[in-house]
Amino acid sequence: MHKINVMHKEDISHRAPPLVDQAFARLRHGVLTGEFPADTKLKIDELQESYGFSSSPLREALSRLAQEGLIRSDERRGFRVAAISAEDLADITRMRVMLDVPALREAIEYGDDAWEGAIVSAFHRLERVESRLADGPVVLDEGWSELHRAFHLALVAACPSERQLAWSASLFDQAERYRRFSARFRKAARRKSNEHRKIMEATLRRDADTACALLEEHILSTQRNVEAALKSAQSQ
């Protein structure tokens, strides 16, 4: 009986994620990478043909993306990818500074040895991948982008507010779309390893003021880079 139970548990662990989660992941990836450009109308029938999902999981996945701010939902117009604008970016940036900086300060106050270890590990993986990449915008590499997200979430993981962490992750993803957009217009590669190292080192020595100042500047630099890319795109 024990052997049967173990086999049953292993079978469950290897099952594919629910269709809604699969649809959500595919659509989210398409929005973040620019497969679906800003303001593109997302038609259910076309998505069904492209991805092979039925309308029900697609609609639920689109609703979840709307809650994250990556797409817009309208009863008459249906679903559209959220527009890209300097005003929207400024709002995202303002909210990230409001949430991420205090979250890091609290994480430094409450974080334990395991939290520190997770930050070091996340940074090490990120740095290793970045060192192997050829010249060019690192944000356009899928592996780097995933590890970049993991590093930023690891920094604030010890913040005791689950809602703050959830909103922080959502805003990071909304900013990711802008980072990828700006990378397409960037002439010089922006290597972030040194910025991340400085944030990590200040965090690990529990220097909250320095770590928070560095993180805020890191976030604001993204805004400046994207604003430059928006101006470049408008001039073309």
Provide the descriptors you would attach to this structure in a database record.
236 residues, mainly alpha, 10 helices, 3 strands, globular
| Beta-strand percent range | under 5%
Q: Please tell me how large the radius of gyration is.
A: 20 Å
Helix proportion: over 70%
In round numbers, the mean pLDDT is 87
Q: Record the strand order, biggest sheet.
A: 1-3-2
Number of helices: 10
Structure description:
About 70% of the residues lie in helices and about 5% in strands. The chain is mainly alpha-helical and about 240 residues long. It has a 3-stranded antiparallel β-sheet with strand order 1-3-2. Strand 2 and strand 3 form a beta hairpin. Helix 2 packs across helix 4 (about 55-70), helix 5 crosses helix 8 and helix 6 packs antiparallel against helix 9. The longest helix has 28 residues, at about 210-235.
Quick recap of the structure?
72% of the residues lie in helices and 4% in strands. It has 236 residues and is mainly alpha-helical.
Topology at a glance:
Layout (H helix, E strand, L loop, with lengths): L1 H12 L5 H15 L7 E2 L1 H8 L3 H14 L2 E4 L3 E4 L4 H25 L2 H20 L9 H15 L5 H22 L9 H12 L3 H28 L1
Antiparallel strand pairs: 1-3, 2-3
